[in-house]
Amino acid sequence: MIQERTAPEFDASKAVITREEGLRLYEDMVLGRFFEDKCAEMYYRGKMFGFVHLYNGQEAVSTGIIKGAMRSDDYVASTYRDHVHALSAGVPARNVMAELFGKETGCSKGRGGSMHMFSAEHRLLGGYAFIAEGIPVAMGAAFNAKYRREALGDQTADQVTACFFGDGAANNGQFFECLNMSALWKLPILYVVENNKWAIGMAHERATSVPEIYKKGAAFGLHGVEVDGMDVLAVRQAAQEAVARARAGEGPTLIEAMTYRFRGHSLADPDELRSKEEKEFWLARDPIKKFAGFMVEYGHATAEELKAVEKKIQALVEEAVQFGLDSPEPDPADLKKYIFAEDV
């Protein structure tokens, strides 16, 4: 039997959650899964170009952090695997899909594509193609909130920033530098490591001397926790505690979410390095199926109601595709637009 490191199992019976919140979390996870499945279809049909990295399997992390614990005025910094983070942050599916098609109606006006999604309206600080590139940007947003509140006296500036990145980024110098400064200044930020075990084709255990990433925060006096990234309720609880600490001025939290991507690194990856046994182990822990079971078992929804949610989301995704296909291409005359800030 394959030996896999997993986080301690969360006791679902102790979860405090309403039916409405449960349905909202379920809907968000299903949206992420269905959206990414449609992206794969569109990519192989030649409607999308370049590199496209899908999030299948990791939905509980995005939903548990953003939808489960954060406010709409909080900030989110993503990675090159950013579609679902954008959706959880509230960017409409049609604008995310249009961006993937390179259309003017995309959230980055068709200039960013799959790996560079931004939305000032939704406090999405961007997707980033380079490893760990978003970490200092996220730290800057957290510093901004703290500075406005403590130096400028703006009592409404209690926003928290969630910074997502993978296990490979945790070996990057920016990670350690930002942990140090964030702990030193007690910044309101959540560092969320989505440990899916693989940095492209490099197994996590082969690339780091300390596989338990959450322990690395201790070197800076920074609070670190390990959580089951395949359980949205476990992620939600860890995130709520971290957000409460951040808003109270108690500083950052390093959350290591143990998760797994169900597809290859990108849609151009044949995914031949991971063993069938390993994949089957994690596929059996599908976060959407797990949460659906919880919703039914604890009387928050019936199987028929969950099916209705899925049907609604499927229609939403189909509408997003049509919107993207029908949207105009960027005007060649605007080639140099958005490179520099425009005069106001």
What does this structure look like?
The protein is built from eleven helices and seven strands. By secondary structure, it is of the alpha/beta class. The protein has a single domain, classed as Rossmann fold (3-Layer(aba) Sandwich). Strand 6, helix 8 (about 230-245) and strand 7 (about 255-260) form a beta-alpha-beta unit. The mean pLDDT is about 95.
Average residue-wise pLDDT: 96
CATH topology: Rossmann fold
The structure class reads: alpha/beta
In the CATH hierarchy, what is the class?
Alpha Beta
Strand order of the largest sheet: 1-2-3-7-6
What's the total helix number?
A: 11
Number of strands: 7
Largest sheet: 5 strands, parallel
Radius of gyration, whole Å = 20 Å
What does the overall shape look like? globular
- The CATH architecture can be named as 3-Layer(aba) Sandwich
How many domains is the backbone divided into?
1
Helix-strand string: HHEHHHEHEEEHEHEHHH
Distance from first to last alpha carbon: 63 Å
Low-confidence stretches: none
Strand content: 5-15%
Percent of residues in helices: 40-55%
CATH superfamily: Thiamin diphosphate (ThDP)-binding fold, Pyr/PP domains
